[in-house]
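Example S7 (structure tokens).
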């Protein structure tokens, strides 16, 4: 049995319209996300073959491929659950309080995460994450799927900044995609992830 598998979408592909088109969601999940799952499994197989043969001449390529595909799988899996047809509004409860504490206000957090996502150079993601060493919520700007993050940070809310995530609907105007994302943000899911992340002990 392969180590990684593609999760089902938690809604039908068209359920997030008009904010996020069903055509994109379907392609994005069935083709792009699926390719990262396959890539992660294939890379594990290639690493096993390298150990068996003792030939590590492709170790740099395989190490990078593993980080890229696994991270692509993890981030997309979080991304689907971070959206809901019943989304939008503001986070409540402990998550809402923590956002106020660490960012000053919900609007300030939203502005920072929007800026981090829209201004990615090349390909990447914006992320609201739990940083377990300082026990703070932070915003990260992820490069590719796996770069530019603090080791150990736990992503809670991620916004895909790759062109495949928005181009069919929003063309070159990535800012409009991120603006629309806030209408479908699934705050109860982020709150659930926030509660779970806080139970993870710091390793330093
Ligand atoms: Mn994507």
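Recovered sequence:
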């Amino acid at each position: 049995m392969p180590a990684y598998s593609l999760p089902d979408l938690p809604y039908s592909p068209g359920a997030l319209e008009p904010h996020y088109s069903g055509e994109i969601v379907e392609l994005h999940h069935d083709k792009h996300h699926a390719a990262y799952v396959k890539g992660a499994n294939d890379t594990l197989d290639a690493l096993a073959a390298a150990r068996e043969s003792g030939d590590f001449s492709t170790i740099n390529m395989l190490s990078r491929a593993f980080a890229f595909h696994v991270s692509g799988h993890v981030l997309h899996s979080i991304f689907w659950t971070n959206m809901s047809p019943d989304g939008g509004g503001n986070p409540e409860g402990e998550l809402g309080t923590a956002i106020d504490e660490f960012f000053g206000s919900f609007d300030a957090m939203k502005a920072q995460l929007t800026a981090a996502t829209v201004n990615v150079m090349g390909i990447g993601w914006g992320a609201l994450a739990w940083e377990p060493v300082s026990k703070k919520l932070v915003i990260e700007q992820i490069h590719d799927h796996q770069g530019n993050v603090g080791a150990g940070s736990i992503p809670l809310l991620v916004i895909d900044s790759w062109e495949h995530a928005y181009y069919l609907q929003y063309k070159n105007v990535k800012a409009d995609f991120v603006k629309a994302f806030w209408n479908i943000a699934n705050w109860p899911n982020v709150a659930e992830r926030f509660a779970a992340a806080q139970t993870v002990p710091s390793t330093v």
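Notes on this example. The mean pLDDT is 97.
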